[in-house]
Amino acid sequence: MKIGIDKIGFYAPHLYLDMTRLAENRNIDPDKFTIGIGQEKMAVPPMTQDAVTLAANAAVDMLNDVDKEAIDFVIFGTETGVDSSKSAAVYVHELLGLNPYARAIEVKQACYGATAGIQMAKAHIAMNPGSKVLVLGSDIARYGLSTPGEATQGAGAVALLISAEPHILAVEDESVYFTADIMDFWRPVYSDKAFADGKLSNEQYIAFFSRVWEQYKTKADLELNDFAAVCYHLPYTKMGYKALKTVLDEGNEEVQERLLTNYKLSTVYNRNVGNIYTGSLYLSLLSLLEQTNELTAGDRIGMFSYGSGAVGEFFTGILQPDYQDYLSIERHNALFASRSEVTVSEYEAMFDDALPTDGSAVELEIDSDPARVCLAGIADNKRQYVNKEKNTTL
Ligand code: HMG
């Protein structure tokens, strides 16, 4: 039985900051951000969006009533969750109106969470072929104003419907994963900003890729020439390129050209959103699939997942017949086209604005946020979520 990605949804907040404007404001050559790092625009979340709402917005237009009834497991990968106890998956389960006979959990290992979710989903469906699993990767990446990491911030979510006989990508069984205790990037519970040892994180990303790739080739008996494309976790779009470069000479000229072309296409969405942590690899996959007409059924796509701390995994998927018919290119084009630019000072004010942490109540203005699902405030220490169409307040 094939198991894999049946549908993919994506959401980013309606506001963005232009990286050239940011560079100019910080007295940095804009080429460093747009070429050296490889980012054009950074998604900026309003107060009315958090990891829960971003994920719900990524899934809300993607699911039909049959899906909602069949989903019996919601796995929410995030490292910027909103509660230390209750899982973000439970909120999303209600906001989307899913079948109550379902499991709902949150998974955390930096940017690796959603990949763990996919592998768990695969095992669940192998045991329960009629069921579907909703895997969410949703985060807000924050490093701080004027920090080296600032240019790699972002916000957004990817929703993946995992099922038997999937329409988009069948995930193959062979996979290699690797864990080592490394302090390359972390966020202590008292901080709303991540700490990063930038140089070490870049080195470890490449080292983990090398480890899992080498082992994968032996285990699966495959080589670079067997791949139509390789997608990477993209903290910024230059990072995956650095990893790809380390293996490119394993392929012949035609393969190198193909992989480089597809790599570029796989970075278009990420370049305009920034790091969305857990969802970044899947945003890259979505970008590739929605930007090319060249890939065909049977093509193998490699996927490198990396979550600082660190866990890395290399796995693969096979494109399914007519997969294009199951993408939502128009919806995602409309999402990008409808975004509005904010100035650097507006972004800075939004960055510094925070929800109360002393238990006081707050009501947020949700009319200026076009998103279907919004955070409307906090009352009695409970977040108040609204699905504007379902008219549900949690
Ligand atoms: P930095 O140290 O300020 O930048 O910040 P740099 O000096 O290394 O320059 C970056 C690149 O721009 C270099 O290219 C420069 O040469 C180039 P490279 O040598 O790397 O190819 N450059 C220019 N190019 C054109 N024109 C110019 C110019 N000037 C310089 N004028 C750093 C970079 C990534 C370290 C920083 O942004 C950072 O700390 N980011 C956060 C950490 C991060 O993203 N790490 C990536 C790997 S870890 C990971 O992926 C996991 C993560 O997603 C978290 C999770 O798992 O949850 C982060």
From TrEMBL:
The entry's keywords: Transferase
Binding site for (3S)-3-hydroxy-3-methylglutaryl-CoA: 29, 143, 242, 275
Domain Hydroxymethylglutaryl-coenzyme A synthase N-terminal: 2-164
One Pfam short name: HMG_CoA_synt_C
Example GO biological process: acetyl-CoA metabolic process
Hydroxymethylglutaryl-coenzyme A synthase C-terminal domain location: 264-350
Cell membrane found in the keyword field: no
A GO molecular-function descriptor: hydroxymethylglutaryl-CoA synthase activity
InterPro entries xref list: HMG_CoA_synt_C_dom, HMG_CoA_synth_N, HMG_CoA_synthase_prok, Thiolase-like
Active-site residues from the entry: 79 (proton donor/acceptor), 111 (acyl-thioester intermediate), 233 (proton donor/acceptor)
Record's protein name: Hydroxymethylglutaryl-CoA synthase
Organism: Lentibacillus kapialis
